[in-house]
Amino acid sequence: MPPPFRSADSLYEARRSPVLSFLTPLRNFRTLEAIDNKMQAVSNKLAERLGDAPTVVSAEYQPRADGAKMRALAWFGTRDVRLIDAPVPDITEPDDVILKVTGTTICGSDLHLYHGEIVQLQQGDILGHEFMGVVDRVGPNVHNIKVGQRVVASFQIACGECSYCKQQLSSMCDRTNTSGLQNAMYGHRDAGFFGYSHFTGGFPGGQAEYVRVPKGNVNLLPIPDGVADEKALFLSDILPTSYHAVVDVGVKKGDVVGIWGLGPIGQCAARFALMKGASRVIGIDNVPARLAFAREKSGIETLDFSEHTDVVKRIQELVPGGLDIAIDCGTFHQPKSVLHKVEKALILETDVSEIVNEMIVATKKMGSCGIIAAYAGFTNHFNIGALMEKGIRLIGHGQAPVHKYWHELLAMIEAGDFDPLFVVSHRVALEEFPDLYASFDKRLGGVEKVFVSTKFSNPPSAGAPPLSRVADWGNEI
């Protein structure tokens, strides 16, 4: 039976977390943009009060002495990203490496920033956590990376020396993220990430012509000449992330796997699940182009939740007894039900439990569910009873430890066992980034993964999409 209706005020008071209680004044704003932008101001104020956690690296960089400028994409508010002229970074700490960016991209998790849903964003923050480049300068302590070398960066900044880094769990590094607010919310903090708010350290990102890589001797992977940029770039995030989800949740031979969300992570996870021996993979989404892409390019089954609104019922029809494995590769910022839309708009919750609940109910008893989608805070109406009674193994995969997998994945690419080009739908220039965010957010033009080039990029490699303009893609959804 559904819970009795309560007013927004009483529901808020009943469910708010002590950490989120500072958001109370936000209920009175009239627009979502005003709420999101005010949330940033309040979260930054709270973070200032909590103070910074100690780290071994600094997010701020030293500009070049000659005053050189670069083009970079920066955040200025909800759905407000702009190209700016920013100082070109110089060596700031002895372990730094400076890259000329030859390839960057937009990630589904960047949309959380675009919508202002990740706290501690500040106006002028340079975005972007997936990038590669050519080494331009190295610090005096860097001896394994040379000027002129092609490299890809991990999206996380690892120190290379803490207990997590020694296990190659680079995303869990204890020593590179200053966010006291993340410490308060989670009890611990992740590694610092490039271009993903001060909640992850405030490091300028790679949606730019140059980028400073702290601990560059640890966080860069040299790329062999035979691997094209359009393939190497995705070792930065989506390949380790999707592979980590499949490995960590334990997909094995004969499993029936459900994947919620057919963006680039979901598309790659589907292929990796098949490589691990899954007998069937069912992808759940509502974007026609993505559903068609999954069927035609990866040969998986699909479920359109705009057609089958009761996802669990449809899965039970397709898979009597339930899924062996379910993986959430979706997103928390697009609630389906009116209740969650209201609660999220009023900051009564930050994240939505709908996908996780669907997975738990659709998975067989003693099955496993994994979450690789980027959740950030608190959710309501979580079906904890079904989780316990069915004996479901619910696994939060965490941010993928890129360092653990990128050598293995690079070997797969070199051997031809996995070709990331299948997911690259478009190529655009850096100047297109503001339009790209808007288009990617609306899934226009059949967009999947986009290679974004700079003035330092090589021409498109064989089989890669040619350069195009976002305005020419059309409006198919």
TrEMBL record:
Q: Which Gene3D superfamilies match?
A: Medium-chain alcohol dehydrogenases, catalytic domain, NAD(P)-binding Rossmann-like Domain
Cofactor(s) recorded in Swiss-Prot or TrEMBL: Zn(2+)
Molecular function as annotated in GO:
oxidoreductase activity; zinc ion binding
Keyword flag Protein transport: no
Q: Where is the Alcohol dehydrogenase-like N-terminal domain?
A: 94-224
Q: What keyword terms does UniProt attach to this protein?
A: Metal-binding, Oxidoreductase, Zinc
In terms of superkingdom, the source organism counts as Eukaryota
Is Transcription regulation one of the keywords? no
- Family statement drawn from the similarity comment of this UniProt entry: Belongs to the zinc-containing alcohol dehydrogenase family.
* Annotated protein name in UniProt: GroES-like protein
Q: What is the lineage of its organism?
A: Eukaryota, Fungi, Dikarya, Basidiomycota, Agaricomycotina
